[in-house]
Amino acid sequence: MAEYSSLEKIRLEKIEALRKEGIEPYPTRAERTHTSVEAIAAFEAAERLAQDGQPAEVRATLTGRLRAVRPMGKLTFAHIEDGEGKIQLFFRINELGQEKVDFFNSRFDLGDFIQAAGVMMRTRSGEATLLVHDFKMLAKAISPLPAAKDETLPDGTVIRHAALEDPELRARQRYADLAVNPEVRETFRKRAAIIRSLREFLDGQGFLEVETPILQPLYGGAAARPFVTHHNELDQDMYLRISFELYLKRLLVGNLEKVYEIGRDFRNEGISYKHNPEFTQLEFYWAYADYLKVMEMTEQMLAFVCQKVTGGLKITYQGQELDFTPPWRRLSMRDGILQTSGIDISQHPTAESLYHAIVRLGKQPAPGATRGKLIDFLVSEYLEPTLIQPTFLYDYPRDISPLAKSKPGDPLTVERFEGYVAGFELCNAFTELNDPLDQEQRFLEMGRDYAADDEEKHPMDEDYLRAMRYGMPPNGGFGMGVDRLTMLLTDKHSIREVILFPPVRKEE
Fold first, then answer.
1. CA–CA dist 127, 150 (Å, integer)
2. What tens digit of pLDDT does each residue of 64-78 get?
3. For a designed S-S bond to 429, which of 117, 253, 447, 478 qualifies (C-beta 3.0 to 4.6 A apart)?
4. What is the pTM for the complete model shown?
5. CA 277 to CA 173: how far, in whole Å?
């Protein structure tokens, strides 16, 4: 049973009183003719048509949550908020009678949902307002909205609004966060617009949106620890997918030449400002393309999305102006590491040689790390923080890219790029490996050279190899975290701010 505060108990008593009076505080039906924005727009249109005369009557039935109430003797002003904005309500005994005005003042509380019908008017202060002729309760809020703060309206009136400021509480009670913080609602509207724009671009390029399994008998396509569950009917362990890659590339074998998916991936790993174990990913695979073609399409796609969502190609993220205008800067991993650390990785073909070079810089990478992991260490320590403007970092070590095709004449390097913006990785792409014999050897190497608990270890996928043996066209593949793109385009520092319901620890 819930434990109620003293304020909640008062509201519960109001619910009981309403029902004794024959009034249902949670009625089945609601009516609405206009949103707040539509009602104001209709009234302003009537004013323009009237010019200097009396505007035509605009009747409206509005619904929303009570955010402010100001009784003033025989009058009461209130503000309600719906999904589009706020509007003022005006309760007056001339239209309603004293009993109804008293009923509103005594039975309604902030947070309650109300339906109000009446005529639009403009107050002396100039605010578009609904003069209420009738109203009813739509839902009684038992719990008051969280901690209040003051806000000044255009007419100078100071009203109290609720606000959540503690990040943990906002994540745990996202429903309350959305209810009291309009800017949070706007963030998630932008997130939806970002996903729509990605789909619009890829559909326009002839890509087919598909769906692949979330529960998989074998995980793969990325370097991550999976979540494990059990399928009772099949009596076998299954994995929540860490990537769509191996299933999407199976579709290329089946002559679907351009495919993409936007959906959830799950990686049983740490949480940080840019990592969440459950996240939204976009992946696409494009037959007969390589990483250079994918690079060009990536900058076009992200410029398209940026333009659609923000209205331009330049944004401000955490105080820095970022320019998404193509073409983006292109930087080889070798040159980038050399410029920022002074180490030329081409002069260190073995892990041992590279390890000692890093130690001489005063850094201490993990002993026994592979050459590829040491290169990745140099990127994160020296290069990544410098990649502020959109940049493609390309040509990666083979041993940390088991699904990418090697560069001709350079067996230690693969055709891979990552897109960096604001100092963190946004996307990842390869010229995909389509040689089944080479792929099998890579899987064997990963099984041999990595410890059993190493997240870089990639399991052997016999069915994927069987698909490849039927013949896979050369192709380019791409993956991007939609949450990170949303962070950039909404200027949010933490990934938790752009996920509606991020994971939180169980409440004591």
1. 19
2. 999 999 999 889 999
3. 478
4. 0.90
5. 19
Asked whether residue 438 is assigned to any structural domain, the reply reads: no
Q: Are residues 126 and 224 in the same domain?
A: no
Statement to judge: residues 115 and 206 lie in one domain = no
Residues 6+ apart with CB under 8 A from 463: 218
Instruction: Check residue 5 and report its DSSP letter.
Output: P
Please, is 292 exposed, middle or buried when counting C-beta atoms within 10 Å of its C-beta (0-12, 13-18, 19+)? middle
How do strand 475-481 and strand 158-162 relate by DSSP bridges? unpaired
Q: Do residues 320 and 388 lie in contact, with contact meaning Cβ atoms separated by under 8 Å?
A: yes
Half-sphere CA count of 38, side-chain side, radius 13 A: 11
Q: Which long-range contacts (CB under 8 A, 24 or more apart) does 378-386 make?
A: 378/337, 378/341, 378/343, 378/345, 379/333, 379/336, 379/337, 381/341, 382/337, 382/340, 382/341, 383/333, 383/336, 383/337, 383/339, 383/340, 383/341, 384/420, 384/423, 384/424, 384/425, 385/423, 386/340, 386/423
Residue 478 maps to a domain: yes
What domain range includes position 63? Answer: 6-162
The helix/strand/coil state of 271 is coil
- Three-state DSSP class for 217? coil
Does residue 302 belong to any structural domain of this protein?
yes
Does 200 share its domain with 140?
Answer: no
d(CA 341, CA 391): 18
In a domain, 158, yes or no: yes
- pLDDT exceeds cutoff 80 at 148: no
16, 154: one domain: yes
Are 147 and 189 in the same domain? no
Alpha carbon distance 118, 284 (integer Å): 52
Total number of domains constituting the chain = 2
Residue 249's pLDDT band (boundaries 50, 70, 90)? very high
Give per-residue pLDDT as tens, 388-427. Answer: 999 999 999 988 888 899 999 998 899 999 999 999 999 9
How far from 501 is each of 274, 430, 496, CA to CA, in Å? 15, 32, 8
Q: What is the 3-state secondary structure (H, E, C) of 54-104?
A: CCCCCEEEEEEEEEEEEEECCEEEEEEECCCCEEEEEEEHHHHCHHHHHHH
Span 274-303, mean pLDDT?
97
Question: In angstroms, what is the C-alpha Rg of the chain?
Answer: 29
Q: Is residue 212 located within the same domain as residue 290? A: yes
Q: What is the CATH number of the domain that holds 156?
A: 2.40.50.140
As beta bridge partners, residue 283 has 261, 479
